[in-house]
Amino acid sequence: MWSTLLTALIGGAAFKLMHAPIPWLLGPMIAVLIGSNLLGRTYRWPVQARNAGMIVVGYAIGLSMTAEALREISYQLPSMMLMIVLLLLFCTGIAYIVSKLSHTDFKTALLGSVPGGLTQVLALAEETKGVNLTIVTVTQVIRLMMIIICVPLLVFNPFFGQSHSEGAAAVSQTLAAAAEWGGLFPNILLFAPVSVACAVFGNKVNFPTAYLLGPALGTAILQLSGLHGPPLPSLLIDAAQFMIGTYVGLLLKPQQLPNKLRTISLALGSGLLLILGAWGFGAVLTKLHPISMSTALLSLAPGGMDQMGIIAHEIQADLSMVAGYQLFRTFFIFFAVPPLLRMMFNYSLKKQKKQEAES
């Protein structure tokens, strides 16, 4: 375990020095991937460490469920539902094309195209039987890198203009400067046990991605009851990403990646299509509501809520709207998508068995 820790720390530090996006998630992931698969080292990483990291990330997501975000969601719920359904249908179409061109099973291609955050989608993929986690991870990482590079180039382009709504001045507490450790107390003494308890209970009742959504829901409920959860110091967020990234890196098996060049090329193509799709749906959203194109694109871009929120703050877009749409998509994907996927896959399995029985 100590060699795993050292390798992951080297990877995270290297990515940090290179100013790479989410360095403490991608750095350890790539470092242990190289060490275990190319250098032949034997690494171990306890699943409990990954679960602890998930609880921290879940708490951070729950902090975003503020009264302001809920008001934004309630005002624009029909538009949010329309946009997320259109985006998911678009992603399903991309996944179908990718599965046919790459000869990958549709289940894996679909999870590789789901527009969720990297951590959440990988957790969902790990819990879904028959999914090639390596393909899902490669596709999602490539998509995330493309979004982090392309979306800022788009929103800072003069073509988008800088006319934002009156809510542009809103600044989210969770996106403020790194919290001081002293600011955690005393409220963290309540929020921390509740987050852990919700994660454990959710796991007991087979809740989807329990160690992520359990703390998110528990934190959101406490906040809506009038309590205020303290924002986490950046060191804690980095540590959580580190624990998750190291665990995921050990799950990756490059030898299980079929037709490497074709798979990576299709991942690049599907990522580009997804960005163009978000841009198109953003244009529709500007017709439905008096918002700027930058706000619309950041609201619908299939990246993490934290990255999109930071960009929104930088260009003074409507932060509450961006957070509301991103939050709604996150929760919709993890409450509605797992049951829909199970229904879809069960139907496909029954159809396949029926065809085999008739032949």
TrEMBL record:
InterPro entries cross-referenced by the UniProt entry: AbrB_dup (IPR017516), AbrB_fam (IPR007820)
> Does this entry carry the keyword Coiled coil?
no
Transmembrane segments in this chain: where?
24-40, 52-71, 77-98, 141-161, 181-202, 209-226, 232-252, 264-285, 327-345
Highest taxon of the source?
Bacteria
What's one Pfam family here? AbrB
**Keywords, comma-separated and alphabetical:** Membrane, Transmembrane, Transmembrane helix
The answer to whether UniProt assigns keyword Heme to this entry is no
Report the protein name in the record. Answer: AbrB family transcriptional regulator
Q: Which organism is it from?
A: Paenibacillus lignilyticus
